[in-house]
Amino acid sequence: MRERDLVRLTMALRAGGGLVRSIRLVREGHPHRTIAAAIERGLAIRVRRSWIALPDADPALLVAARAGVVLTCVTQAERLGLWVLDHSGMHVAAPPNAGRVDVPAGAHVHRARPLLPRAADALSDPIQNVLALVAVCQPFEAALAVWESALRAQRVDVLELQRLPIGSRAREILAAAQPFSDSGLESFVLPRLKWMRLRIIAQAWIAGRPVDFLIGERLVLQIDGGHHVGAQRESDVRHDAELALRGYHVIRVGYRQVVDDWVSVQDLLSRAVAQGLHLAA
């Protein structure tokens, strides 16, 4: 067995994301004997009969390959770098007529017919399928945050989504989506503030940088995520001081307040508006 053949094989596996169907490897010029030698030397592992993987392949992809499913919904959304609230349990998709699939305990198996056909060697869903499943799987606000994150990152096009048969719930989310939201938390806030019947501008540019929300003319709502520490926190404090000097009133809340204690946030805003802090002097 020539060493360069083994090197070529491992490079092909690496280029394929760490897992490649064996039939594809053979088709690309890697003989069965090379694959067998790589497995014998510990350079690769066989996953079921169909897949060959590197020993350090992504564990989530290994689960998908072993179970004959694809990663989807919030699991794949998080893998794509989108904002996801629900991090519990793996979400996978199986063919609608598939029998029992062997997935980890607590995993959610989606069986809906996909918008886009899944390739035979796919281990993760395309973004269009991901968003469609998120829309029906997650609560409205959590789903909206994922959709807005995808639009903000330009992972998908609005016009394409509008042309797809995405279902009524997904169309409702698409109609509400604001791709200029700076974070998933902001996706929660705007629908919750509509009852105030005030002008609300997301990402309004004031004093040299954007604020999360400008309510009325002078009330600023800032939402701190987990990254608001250290230098970021110091920058926020300086900007808050500049806003105050310009006559703005700043209410700054944290992640847990928005997600778990919205009543307290709403109370703060209601009291501020009742005092006229949203109005220019």
Specify the overall morphology.
Answer: elongated
Estimate nothing, just give the exact number of structural domains.
3
Total beta strands: 10
- End-to-end Cα distance, whole Å, is 83 Å
Can you give a write-up of this model?
With 281 residues, the chain is α+β, with helices and mostly antiparallel strands. It folds into three domains: 55 residues; 113 residues, no CATH class; 91 residues, Endonuclease, Chain A (3-Layer(aba) Sandwich). It is 46% helix and 15% strand. The strands form three sheets. Strands 7-8-9-10 form a four-stranded mixed β-sheet, with helices on both faces. The chain has a three-stranded antiparallel β-sheet with strand order 1-3-2, sandwiched between helices. It has a three-stranded mixed β-sheet with strand order 4-5-6. α1 crosses α3, α6 packs antiparallel against α7 and α7 packs across α10.
Which features would summarize this protein structure in a list?
alpha+beta; Endonuclease, Chain A; four-stranded mixed sheet; three-stranded antiparallel sheet; 46% helix; DUF559 domain-containing protein; DUF559
Helix and strand layout, with pairings?
Layout: H1 3-15, E1 19-21, H2 22-27, H3 32-40, E2 45-47, E3 51-53, H4 59-67, E4 70-71, H5 73-79, E5 91-93, E6 108-110, H6 127-137, H7 140-152, H8 158-163, H9 168-176, H10 184-193, E7 200-206, E8 209-215, E9 219-224, H11 230-245, E10 249-254, H12 255-260, H13 262-274
Parallel strand pairs: 5-6, 9-10
Antiparallel strand pairs: 1-3, 2-3, 4-5, 7-8, 8-9
Helix pairs in contact: 1-3, 5-6, 6-7, 7-10
